[in-house]
Amino acid sequence: MPREPTFATDALDPAQIAAYLTRIELAPALADSAPSLKLLSDVYLNHHLHVPKDTTSMHVTKEAWNGPSQPIVLGSSLNAMPLRTAGFDRIVRLHAGGYCWANNPTFAALLRGLGFRVSEVSAKVYKNWANLDTLDKIVRNRWGTITHVVLVVDWPGSGDRYVLDVGFGGGGCPIPMPLRNGATVLGLNPYEAWTLRHEPLPHDPEDEPPIDVIPGYTMYRRTSQVGFCSVPDADTPSTWTHQLHFLLASVTIRDIGLFDFYSQGHPLAAFTGFFLVTRLLPGGARRSLIYSENMACDGKRLARVYTTGGLGGDGPRDVEYVPMETGPMRAFLEREFGFVFE
């Protein structure tokens, strides 16, 4: 019996790679290309444009989608920790997606199949990242537990290593980020950028300092004020906010399984409390469908759908509502996000 590897080394086979590239609307012939920053950037961006962050599998079973319409109850319908590349069928065959622990490891297996080297590292997400705060102002108690994973990618002769994340969802960086202190990349429009800082986990200066500190990397997102149409520079009015923090340490497959279980099966699991499908649009805007129970009003359970970002600014627009029932929700996901139900 083959020995189980300690760290992730799994790679998609040629047929899976061809199917994956077709799914994200890239030519399967790209699989014959040597690893390069251009190939990495194209595959990374196209995944963002075609594969959503998606928690629907946590709340609704396959049988429920295919039966009579019924209320969608938030919780976890997953009975076990997903295995490696568990998101492949959802991404490629069902044209859906997954949350970070499905999307990122599956995308990592695609990259390995294309000849890239990938390290999977765990991360903490800044829970208040969407509420703008300045780079030097830390809001205490806003860092979550280790419930996220990001990828660090390189290849022979690459020089730099790059940070990638196809599982963050809204506000995630769709451009490979060089793994360098102070590295900055611009987004798909002139209103946003991201930077990476090598530093200890930021905390409130009034907190009692930790005894032991290992510097990691913090990703920050910059959003420029709407109306400034030039590429952001030091003089452009804007706001930075923390997004995530990770240590440069590959985590074992078993650790990934435990972190994943905490995210989708534990009583305190974050993903069981909201129904989310969100995908990047060309130009950097994002289309999102979201529901949590605190959104119910007068007994009406309606998921909110809206567009944010891009040239239209960060404020929500094109707002509509979908009943939290399997019948109308399935029809909406088929029509607007291209989901396939079988």
From TrEMBL:
InterPro entries: Arylamine_N-AcTrfase, Arylamine_NAT_domain_sf, Papain-like_cys_pep_sf. Transmembrane segments: none annotated. GO terms for molecular function: acetyltransferase activity. Belongs to the arylamine N-acetyltransferase family. This is Arylamine N-acetyltransferase 1. The lineage of its organism: Eukaryota, Fungi, Dikarya, Basidiomycota, Agaricomycotina.
